Amino acid sequence: MTEQVKIPWEDRPKGSSDVIWRYSGNPIIGRYHIPSSNSIFNSAVVPFGDAYAGVFRCDNKAVQMNIHAGFSQDGIHWEIEHEPIEMQPGNTSMIESDYKYDPRVTFLEDRYWVTWCNGFHGPTIGLAYTYDFKEFFQCENAFLPFNRNGVLFPERINGRYAMLSRPSDNGHTPFGDIYISYSPDMKYWGEHRCVMKVSPFEQSAWQCTKIGAGPVPIRTDEGWLVFYHGVINTCNGFRYSMGAALLDLEDPSRLMYRTQPYLLAPAMSYELAGDVPNVLFPTAALCDMEKLVIYYGAADTVVGIAFGYLKEILDFTRSHSL
Amino acid sequence: MTEQVKIPWEDRPKGSSDVIWRYSGNPIIGRYHIPSSNSIFNSAVVPFGDAYAGVFRCDNKAVQMNIHAGFSQDGIHWEIEHEPIEMQPGNTSMIESDYKYDPRVTFLEDRYWVTWCNGFHGPTIGLAYTYDFKEFFQCENAFLPFNRNGVLFPERINGRYAMLSRPSDNGHTPFGDIYISYSPDMKYWGEHRCVMKVSPFEQSAWQCTKIGAGPVPIRTDEGWLVFYHGVINTCNGFRYSMGAALLDLEDPSRLMYRTQPYLLAPAMSYELAGDVPNVLFPTAALCDMEKLVIYYGAADTVVGIAFGYLKEILDFTRSHSL
Amino acid sequence: MTEQVKIPWEDRPKGSSDVIWRYSGNPIIGRYHIPSSNSIFNSAVVPFGDAYAGVFRCDNKAVQMNIHAGFSQDGIHWEIEHEPIEMQPGNTSMIESDYKYDPRVTFLEDRYWVTWCNGFHGPTIGLAYTYDFKEFFQCENAFLPFNRNGVLFPERINGRYAMLSRPSDNGHTPFGDIYISYSPDMKYWGEHRCVMKVSPFEQSAWQCTKIGAGPVPIRTDEGWLVFYHGVINTCNGFRYSMGAALLDLEDPSRLMYRTQPYLLAPAMSYELAGDVPNVLFPTAALCDMEKLVIYYGAADTVVGIAFGYLKEILDFTRSHSL
Amino acid sequence: MTEQVKIPWEDRPKGSSDVIWRYSGNPIIGRYHIPSSNSIFNSAVVPFGDAYAGVFRCDNKAVQMNIHAGFSQDGIHWEIEHEPIEMQPGNTSMIESDYKYDPRVTFLEDRYWVTWCNGFHGPTIGLAYTYDFKEFFQCENAFLPFNRNGVLFPERINGRYAMLSRPSDNGHTPFGDIYISYSPDMKYWGEHRCVMKVSPFEQSAWQCTKIGAGPVPIRTDEGWLVFYHGVINTCNGFRYSMGAALLDLEDPSRLMYRTQPYLLAPAMSYELAGDVPNVLFPTAALCDMEKLVIYYGAADTVVGIAFGYLKEILDFTRSHSL
Amino acid sequence: MTEQVKIPWEDRPKGSSDVIWRYSGNPIIGRYHIPSSNSIFNSAVVPFGDAYAGVFRCDNKAVQMNIHAGFSQDGIHWEIEHEPIEMQPGNTSMIESDYKYDPRVTFLEDRYWVTWCNGFHGPTIGLAYTYDFKEFFQCENAFLPFNRNGVLFPERINGRYAMLSRPSDNGHTPFGDIYISYSPDMKYWGEHRCVMKVSPFEQSAWQCTKIGAGPVPIRTDEGWLVFYHGVINTCNGFRYSMGAALLDLEDPSRLMYRTQPYLLAPAMSYELAGDVPNVLFPTAALCDMEKLVIYYGAADTVVGIAFGYLKEILDFTRSHSL
Amino acid sequence: MTEQVKIPWEDRPKGSSDVIWRYSGNPIIGRYHIPSSNSIFNSAVVPFGDAYAGVFRCDNKAVQMNIHAGFSQDGIHWEIEHEPIEMQPGNTSMIESDYKYDPRVTFLEDRYWVTWCNGFHGPTIGLAYTYDFKEFFQCENAFLPFNRNGVLFPERINGRYAMLSRPSDNGHTPFGDIYISYSPDMKYWGEHRCVMKVSPFEQSAWQCTKIGAGPVPIRTDEGWLVFYHGVINTCNGFRYSMGAALLDLEDPSRLMYRTQPYLLAPAMSYELAGDVPNVLFPTAALCDMEKLVIYYGAADTVVGIAFGYLKEILDFTRSHSL
Question: B touches which chains (3+ CB pairs under 8 A)?
Answer without folding.
Answer: A, C, F
